[in-house]
Amino acid sequence: MPLTRRGFLAGALALPALSTVAACAGTVVQPGDLSRLRMMVPASPGGGWDTTARTLQRVIQQTGIARNVQVFNVEGAGGTIGIGQLAREDDDALLMMMGLVMVGAIDTNDSTTRLDDVTPIAQLIAETELIVVPADSPYDTLEDFVAGWAADPRGTPIAGGSAGGTDQILAGLLAQAAGIDPIEVNYIAYSGGGESLAALLGSQVAAGISGTADYGPQVQSGDLKGIAVSTAERSNQVPDVPTIIESGFDVEVTNWRGLMARPGMSDGARDDLIALVTDAHDTDEWAEALDANGWLDTFQTGDEYGEFLAEEETRVRQVLTEIGLIQG
Questions:
Q1: Gyration radius of the chain over CA positions
Q2: pLDDT at res. 324
Q3: Mean pLDDT per segment of 10 residues, for the chain of length 328 residues?
Q4: pTM for the whole thing?
Q5: Rounded to whole angstroms, how far apart are CA atoms 250 and 5?
Q6: What residues does 131 pair with on adjacent strands?
Q7: 9-126+257-322 and 128-253: same fold?
Q8: Are 67 and 35 in contact (CB under 8 A)?
């Protein structure tokens, strides 16, 4: 299948570090006690996984679904440090946030722990990717940018997140659609949206790719120019920015996020976690969070989610092979 197939659902390389939080003073959290839930974010605070986890934490606590939800961060290697830790856990009341970046990072980092080593619980949301250029860029449209990019791929640096993640996959897909060899793409991976944003604001790169939550405010303020969004329809976060498809390139990508749990748990324990997350998803508070963040509701659970993950692994591996990040 060509890299440009429409509807590809998309979803790294950071120095490993470990951050933990202690249980609340005087409280002993028993394994499997869903009234006191833990949620691991296998990335640094402030990013997309962290924002989604803390939004879910707030909804669960505000609606009384669980009395206490602890969110903690385990940073490193596109989430592969975190999934490795999850695979060694025995607590049925632990969830881990993840998404496409981890799917790609498992291959680019040669992780010994893979998605089928842990338990799928639910896919929560998907986010639109936004392609931007600096405010002083000569390019005002995606068509203009692609013309310049095709003339000098190596001299057109593109900023984005972790190697092998959503942003680089989108760059590779767009390159192929434009007739550019994906291996020639000069992609600069940053560990977070803040670093890539600084490079864009300083005109150190020709373009940037990230979620609408990262770049949307700067597009709205005029500090960056939005030239395309990656979904089939325009984003309500940046409604004046056309889609890639509108701009003449048959590429559609969404950056999804979901939840996993430890391996080897009983069907009953898994079903309890699915029920808890479903209850949170069905609240008005969660619907309001989706709207406020411009997230797409892509909710699915259990075996259906597991089948989706298996398909994503195959698709992502194909793309990463074709853009030269992993060996086929």
A1: 19
A2: 81
A3: 43 33 39 82 88 97 94 91 96 96 90 95 96 98 98 97 87 94 91 81 96 91 98 93 97 95 97 97 97 93 97 90 80
A4: 0.81
A5: 7
A6: 209, 228
A7: yes
A8: yes
The 3-class secondary structure across the chain, one letter per residue, is CCCCCCCEEECCCCCCCCCCCCCCCCCCCCCCCCCEEEEEECCCCCCHHHHHHHHHHHHHHHCCCCCEEEEEECCCHHHHHHHHHHCCCCCCCEEEEEEHHHHHHHHHCCCCCCHHHCEEEEEEEEEEEEEEEECCCCCCCHHHHHHHHHHCCCCCCEEECCCCCHHHHHHHHHHHHCCCCHHHCCEEECCCHHHHHHHHHCCCCCEEEEEHHHHHHHHHHCCEEEEEECCCCCCCCCCCCCECCCCCCCCCEEEEEEEEECCCCCHHHHHHHHHHHHHHHCCHHHHHHHHHHCCEEEEEEHHHHHHHHHHHHHHHHHHHHHCCCCCC
CB 171 within 8 A of CB 206: no
Phi, psi of 85 (to 5 degrees): -70, -40
The encoded tokens of residue 299 equal 């909710």
What CATH architecture applies to the domain 9-126+257-322? 3-Layer(aba) Sandwich (3.40)
Name residue, tokens 């069907």. Answer: 267
CB 227 within 8 A of CB 139: yes
For residue 220 the two structure tokens come to 């709205």
Hey, where are the domains in the chain?
9-126+257-322, 128-253
Task: Please give the backbone phi and psi of residue 206, each rounded to the nearest 5 degrees, phi first.
Answer: -80, -30
Query: What number of other Cβ atoms are within 10 A of residue 158's Cβ?
Result: 25
pLDDT at 274: 97
* CATH 3.40.190.10 correct for 128-253: yes
- The sign one gets for the Cα dihedral 265, 270, 276, 281 is positive
Count of residues in the chain: 328
Q: What pLDDT is stored for residue 82 in this prediction?
A: 96
Question: Across-strand partners of 260?
Answer: 96, 120
Residue carrying the six token digits 């092998």: 164
